[in-house]
């Protein structure tokens, strides 16, 4: 089992091994369902450490290749009891969570969570806390920073004052396949050959490759006990966002982009603009753009005293982009910015579960015989969404995605992490994979803005005549009168949207089966 995790980690970067023969540490990772946390876990395992993950929804970690090699506990960083239980026997605790996007009081939630984490770490005798925060501009009072950066800085201060030796790593723009910063850069550059851009595209920043962030996180576990401080993390180059877009275009083989900065696009307007052009919703785009108002450049590289740079490191911007693009093209993106659930998204139980509290439930059911094997049908079901679309009335799905973006939702453009395979917790356009039984069931939970909770289930089952049977069920649990009105306003379109979806999935499965059979016929 440990070997499997080691191989998965090595597939995402060069192995970080050293001649260190000391026994592995016991590490707690919070935020393992997120972008960085999901990549850190296999790195720690590859270094011989034991890993425990604290997650609100442990099921989301079930399908990760390293899931069998870690101890997973259910809990929330705002709850002292669950954090205290998770801290038992731990040497190093990684704090990789934040409450951004949970509401206007996210700063207070971050503050409370950090205090709980520090207090419980001290009570449990944890030897070190490691926290990944944001790089803040020198000479700018924290009260003048964006709420996002201000909160990340405050969390760092709270942890440093916890009486537990703490390493605070501060990074600006992280470049890696699936990171929000990289996706924003990629889509802006690829989709807009001519751009009217905000003035912040001329702000100087110091991007860093995700591999070097992970290297610093892993290496920080063994810092001496007397180290209690923050470290700046950055790559070898200081660039403007304008430089980054032009260099990305060159690396990706795109024609040179015409970029015209204008001063009238505020961070708020910029976030709307980014939300319309890229898969990154404005709830995430806004803190990213607000963070670019000030110059964010490293003023020290002291981390190298404790986590020495190997030859050729840190990785330069161009190489980081090439590595990220290769991962995207090879469909080997292990985690994405959308790995973490959207704040406010519904949670268990499913309305048909025995422990559901009750209430109104609307259902749309479809069932069809399919002239293909269950395996062929499942390939179509598991491949749904992203570039493959939703097999019915593309304009209707596109319009629903646009409307969701306009009201601050995630929209339809998050796509897929992998073109062929899904796992529990994956984002899939404006859905989230809630359950998957390979070969049989895919259950999706809606994360678009709705006056209620919604699910979509797809089943591939053996048929009575040797073919297969496709079953589809859409469920909606309305909230209030608006929820009921919403269902009845869209129900006239269900025959087209859901009915067409079932028929087209059945046709696609039959065609896939025919094509594969033809490909295996011997040449005449």
TrEMBL record:
<feature type="region of interest" description="Disordered">
    <location>
        <begin position="1"/>
        <end position="23"/>
    </location>
</feature>
<dbReference type="Pfam" id="PF11066">
    <property type="entry name" value="DUF2867"/>
</dbReference>
<dbReference type="InterPro" id="IPR016040">
    <property type="entry name" value="NAD(P)-bd_dom"/>
</dbReference>
<dbReference type="Pfam" id="PF13460">
    <property type="entry name" value="NAD_binding_10"/>
</dbReference>
<protein>
    <submittedName>
        <fullName>Oxidoreductase</fullName>
    </submittedName>
</protein>
<dbReference type="InterPro" id="IPR036291">
    <property type="entry name" value="NAD(P)-bd_dom_sf"/>
</dbReference>
<dbReference type="InterPro" id="IPR021295">
    <property type="entry name" value="DUF2867"/>
</dbReference>
<feature type="domain" description="NAD(P)-binding">
    <location>
        <begin position="31"/>
        <end position="172"/>
    </location>
</feature>
<dbReference type="InterPro" id="IPR051207">
    <property type="entry name" value="ComplexI_NDUFA9_subunit"/>
</dbReference>
<dbReference type="GO" id="GO:0044877">
    <property type="term" value="F:protein-containing complex binding"/>
</dbReference>
């Amino acid at each position: 089992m440990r070997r499997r995790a080691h191989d998965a980690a090595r597939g995402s970067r060069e192995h970080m091994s050293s001649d260190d023969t000391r026994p592995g540490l016991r590490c707690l990772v919070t935020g393992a369902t997120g972008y960085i946390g999901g990549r850190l876990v296999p790195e720690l395992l590859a270094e011989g450490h034991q890993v425990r993950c604290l997650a609100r929804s442990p099921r989301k970690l079930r399908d990760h290749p390293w899931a069998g090699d870690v101890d997973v506990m259910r809990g929330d960083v705002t709850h002292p009891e669950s954090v205290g239980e998770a801290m038992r026997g731990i040497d190093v605790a990684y704090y990789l969570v934040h409450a951004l996007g949970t509401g206007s009081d996210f700063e207070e939630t971050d503050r409370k969570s950090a205090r709980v984490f520090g207090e419980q770490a001290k009570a449990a005798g944890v030897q070190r806390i490691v926290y990944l925060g944001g790089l803040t501009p020198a000479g700018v009072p924290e009260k003048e920073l964006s709420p996002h950066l201000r909160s990340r800085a405050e969390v760092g201060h709270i942890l440093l004052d916890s009486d537990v030796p703490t390493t605070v790593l501060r990074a600006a723009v992280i470049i890696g396949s699936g990171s929000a910063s990289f996706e924003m850069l990629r889509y802006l550059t690829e989709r807009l050959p001519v751009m009217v851009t905000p003035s912040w595209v001329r702000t100087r920043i110091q991007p860093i490759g995700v591999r070097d962030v992970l290297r610093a996180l892993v290496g920080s576990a063994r810092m001496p006990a007397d180290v209690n401080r923050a470290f700046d993390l950055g790559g070898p180059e200081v660039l403007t966002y304008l430089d980054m877009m032009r260099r990305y275009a060159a690396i990706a083989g795109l024609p040179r982009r015409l970029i015209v900065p204008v001063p009238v696009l505020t961070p708020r307007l910029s976030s709307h603009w980014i939300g319309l052009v890229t898969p990154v919703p404005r709830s995430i785009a806004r803190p990213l753009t607000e963070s670019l108002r000030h110059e964010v450049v490293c003023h020290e590289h002291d981390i190298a005293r404790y986590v020495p740079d190997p030859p050729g490191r840190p990785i330069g911007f161009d190489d980081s982009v090439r590595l990220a693009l290769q991962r995207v093209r090879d469909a080997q993106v292990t985690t994405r910015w959308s790995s973490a659930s959207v704040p406010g998204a519904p949670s268990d139980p499913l309305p048909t579960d025995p422990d559901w509290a009750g209430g109104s439930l609307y259902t749309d059911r479809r069932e069809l015989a399919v002239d293909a094997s269950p395996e062929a049908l499942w390939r179509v079901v598991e491949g749904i969404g992203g570039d493959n679309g939703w097999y019915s009335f593309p304009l209707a799905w596109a319009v629903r995605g646009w409307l969701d973006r306009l009201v601050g939702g995630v929209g339809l453009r998050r796509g897929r992490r992998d073109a062929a395979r899904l796992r529990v917790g994956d984002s899939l356009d404006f859905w989230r994979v809630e359950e998957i039984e390979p070969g049989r069931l895919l259950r999706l939970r809606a994360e678009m803005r709705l006056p209620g909770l919604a699910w979509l289930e797809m089943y591939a089952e053996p048929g009575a005549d040797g073919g297969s049977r496709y079953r589809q069920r859409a469920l909606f649990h309305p909230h209030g009168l608006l929820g009921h009105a919403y269902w009845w306003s869209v129900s006239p379109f269900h025959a087209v949207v859901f009915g067409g979806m079932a028929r087209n999935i059945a046709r696609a499965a039959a065609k896939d089966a025919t094509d594969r059979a033809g490909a295996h016929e011997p040449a005449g």
